[in-house]
Amino acid sequence: MPGGKYPIIASVHMSVVTAKVAGVPRIITSAPPYQGKPAPAIVAAQHLAGADEIYCLGGIQAVGAMALGTQSIDPVHMLVGPGNAFVAEAKRQLYGRVGIDLFAGPTETLVIADETVDAELCATDLLGQAEHGPTSPAVFLTTSEKLARDTMAEIDRLLEILPTAEIARQSWADYGEVIVADDYDEMLKLADEICSEHVQVMTDRDDWFLEHMTGYGALFLGPRTNVSYGDKVIGTNHTLPTQKAGRYTGGLWVGKYIKTHTYQRVLTDEASTMLGEYCSRLCALEGFAGHGEQANIRVRRYGGRNIPYAGVAD
Questions:
Q1: Model confidence over 71-113: pLDDT tens digits?
Q2: 31-83 confidence digits (pLDDT tens)
Q3: Which of these, 19, 66, 133, 158, is most buried using a 10 Å CB contact count?
Q4: Among 220, 217, 211, which residue's Cα sits nearest to residue 246?
Q5: Contacts (Cβ under 8 Å, ≥6 apart) of 160
Q6: Which long-range contacts (CB under 8 A, 24 or more apart) does 270-279 make?
Q7: Contact 289, 311 (CB under 8 A)
């Protein structure tokens, strides 16, 4: 993965601590080796986050070992965490056999800005996420043509000095986009259509966007906030929906690890009889005779009413 020696340290506490808070009884972690041996910083992060088992294993082989199990690794019930396109596809194919966090694509960022901020800030926030990989979209949305042009010029300048410029330049060239909207209402409409994973908002009405936007993974409001804070240290989870999935889901959170079970108990003869009468009629309308008889037998036994077998009329 691009991004330096230990690009997934932050992902450890995003995944493991969240599971720990949810009360998951067994948490296993895996990361690929670095220079032929376990990466010390990642192992330390895994241990401090509370992992019960730690493996030096990466790629689809790690995903397969966790989901299917091996002679030495018992299978798990859920897979979470980042990976390349092959890892994402492996998780997709295993979904159903195990649960997963999200169907993840390349990192996406959208910067929404007006002339309350400068081009250097906008360009930095765009390239800061474009360095994730050569297919990471970075979109700039503004009401100011001047700010748009200044930001493009600033991007060109930064690409001459950014250590990760090779990746960021390719991403910007192939997937970068600059949009000048007529007004804030159009920016809002376009932002919801783009439905980016990360949305950096730097305008004179940040709270207005917070109140009205519906399509995104996470919002980063104001010039003092940025996506890197969210990726690494601010406290919210950085495992977020991509590829417009923000239309129907949010990011990874404690509740993702918690199953919702229901149970039922009818306490009185009268209640069972009343429910049975309603249920019997509905089953007859739907043509489910066996379902209907489950209700009818209880109306007969607990209500003393002779409802014919399988809902057949007298």
A1: 999 999 999 988 888 998 999 999 999 999 988 889 999 999 9
A2: 999 889 999 999 999 999 999 999 999 899 999 999 999 999 999 999 998 88
A3: 66
A4: 217
A5: none
A6: 270/303, 272/298, 272/299, 272/302, 272/303, 273/298, 273/299, 273/302, 273/303, 273/305, 276/302, 276/303, 276/307, 277/303, 277/305, 277/307
A7: yes
Structure tokens at 143: 């009401």
Total number of residues shown for the chain:
314
Q: Do residues 289 and 283 touch, judged by C-beta distance below 8 A?
A: yes
One-letter identity of residue 269: D
Three-point CA angle 47, 50, 51, nearest 5°: 70
Strand-strand pairing, 53-56 and 28-31: parallel
pLDDT value at 293 more than 90: yes
pTM of the model: 0.86
Buried b (16+ CB within 10 A) or exposed e, 4-41: eebebbbbbbbbbbbbbeeebeebbbbbbeeeeebbee
From 154, 198, 238, 293, active-site residue = 198
Question: Which tokens is 232 given?
Answer: 């690494």
Task: Give the residue carrying structure tokens 């730690």.
Answer: 54
Residues whose CB is less than 8 angstroms from the CB of residue 287 and which lie 6 or more positions away in sequence, other chains included: none
Which residues make Cβ contacts (< 8 Å) with residue 311, sequence separation at least 6?
280, 283, 284, 289, 292, 293, 296
* Type of residue found at 153: A
| 197 is an active site residue | yes
Q: CA 301: distance to chain centroid?
A: 50
Return the structure tokens found at 240.
């977020």
Out of 197, 238, 270, 286, pick the active-site residue: 197
Nearest residue to 99 via CA among 262, 260, 261, 256: 256
